[in-house]
Design brief:
Elements (H helix, E strand, L loop, with lengths): L42 E8 L7 E9 L5 E8 L10 E7 L10 E4 L9 E9 L6 E8 L20 E7 L7 E4 L1 H4 L6 E6 L2 E2 L1 E2 L9 E9 L3 E9 L7 E2 L7 E8 L5 E7 L5 E7 L10 E7 L6 E4 L14 E6 L6 E8 L8 E9 L3 E5 L5 E5 L5 E7 L11 E3 L3 E2 L5 E9 L6 E2 L2 E4 L6 E4 L5 E2 L4 E9 L7 E10 L5 E10 L10 E8 L11 E10 L5 E7 L15 E4 L4 E4 L3 E3 L2 H6 L1 E2 L2 E8 L2 E8 L3 E2 L2
Parallel strand pairs: 6-11, 28-36
Antiparallel strand pairs: 1-26, 2-3, 3-4, 4-5, 6-7, 7-8, 8-9, 10-13, 12-13, 13-14, 14-15, 16-17, 17-18, 18-19, 20-21, 21-22, 22-23, 24-25, 25-26, 27-29, 29-34, 30-33, 31-35, 32-34, 35-36, 37-38, 38-41, 38-42, 39-40, 39-44, 43-46, 44-45
Amino acid sequence: MKSPARLGAVAATSALLLLASPSSAFAADYDASPFWTGQRPSYTEQTLARGGDGVFPNYRIPALAVTNAGTVLASYDGRPSAADAPGPNYILQRRSADNGVSWGAQETVRAGKTTKPIEGYSDPSYVIDRETGSIFNFHVQSFDAGFVGSRPGVDPNDRRVLHAEVSQSDDDGVTWTHRTITADITPDVRNTLSRFAASGQGIQLKYGPHAGRLLQQFTIIDSPWVFRAVTIYSDDHGQTWRSGTPVGTGMDENKVVELSDGRVMLNSRDSARSGFRKVAYSTDGGLTYGPVTIDRELPDPANNASIIRAFPNAPQSSAQAKVLLFSNANSSSSRTNGTVRASCDDGETWPIQRVFAAGDMAYSTLATLPDNQVGLLYEPGHNGIVFAKFNLAWLQGLCAPIDVKDELTVERGTSASTELSITNQLGPVIKDARLAAAAPQGWTVTFGTTPGKLLPHRSLTTSVSVTVPASAAGGTYRVPITWTDTAGRHSTGYLTVTVPKAADEKDGRITVTGGTHTNPQASYAVGDVLKFTYRVTNLTNAVTTVVPTGNLRGLDPAQGAPNCRWTNLPGNGAYNCTSPNHVVTQADLDAGEFTPRTSWVSTSGSDVTTVALDGPVVKLS
């Protein structure tokens, strides 16, 4: 058996992981320097599976892990009928021995059976035991029932029960053995209707009295039809698996991460569709959790996501141990806008974010790689698997959360002010940074003075003032605020502003912001394509339908605009429209500029509201 590799961070000039050799430890030299020091931003990606390749018509549900030998494993569903369980699905895998640069052929971990009686395996999730080198691949085993159609029972031969299976490899993921663990993890035959492992990756605890414990997250349905999250754990290196106490209601696919103080944070998809992630904490290694709360810094459209420690082997309570990474579809209403976020304080704040897929993006999962990079496996929509890798400098982030003191209520045609504070959590010295707000058109947001530099572990306080025009629609606005230094690194916070509705104001009102030109060039020629992005927010509790028109291509679904026209946008929901574009003409060049002009019609019942948005002007000279 190979000696276990210990994942760890290197000095500040490298800041992630270095693999010395398959049988030796990762380098582990720590300090509290910022994680981007000495790095040039890097991001690459490649497609590992695409539907219609002649093997499977549909690929979904990514899982990602790094073995003790440094092999990167990517697992996912191969779906013969494109159906979820109980479809006759396969658990597939590809392996990389060079940190995701190249990949071996597609392998089968667990094969489905397409002829009757059918048999299927879905939704993989890896757990790696760093002490033994064993690799576990949790997944669904289905016969005739899916998650919502399963009935109580634990008999492995009962075809109307959705079963839990785990495959195990002790040779670096080359060969696998399989066993059903339905009765082990959900022994309450009367009250448990269904269960499935949350896809992606589980963890092994590193700190405290439960160090070495393996954790895999599950979603179960309890009678009478309540979705709960639960941690499945092993204290004997996977020989046996047991269940903790189910937590929450309206829970769905969920993940856990061990924090710098040894607590376990649960981060869950919300099946009740609040538009945000749900969070709870455990102080006993995942057996029980405290109250479930909504994290309004993490918008989510009821989708799977990923949360990991950026430095998996960092010492307990160190600055590196507090750095978390999170990936998801950063939207409250649509599976779009794939984003990676970073926190430098155990997930208390999430000031750093960068978009990696502005259009369709569904499930994603993260893993720290052995070559000073982070692996990201994601779905570009709902039929394909893409592997990306990036370093932390690519995030262009500042560990400097923006905390706005008060939520403001501002009448039309008036102004209001509050304070905001910014803390430089890690460093380096932040010089000549500037505040800016992405407010709706016609609004004015101004800030007080800020010092020319902010030292590590120091804070500043300044004012923010908002003027709302008389023409503003009533509703609640979440205005992004960014703080950007001279190198282009930034942090993001939010100012919440409520504009009281007029007595005769109807539901169905929306706000549209953006029109941002996303691919500026030094010069332009006829035929160049200008790309734009917009954000649409429903300001009311009523469902509405949004239809855009204008002088841009890509506003209509017939023109390749899958995320611009929105039917039944939920109350208080929002989405990003990323496909609008314009082809530069000679007339544009003669004028020296182009102005995007759009009109957005919101229809809610008999109420119809139109929002016109022109500009910003793109200079072409």
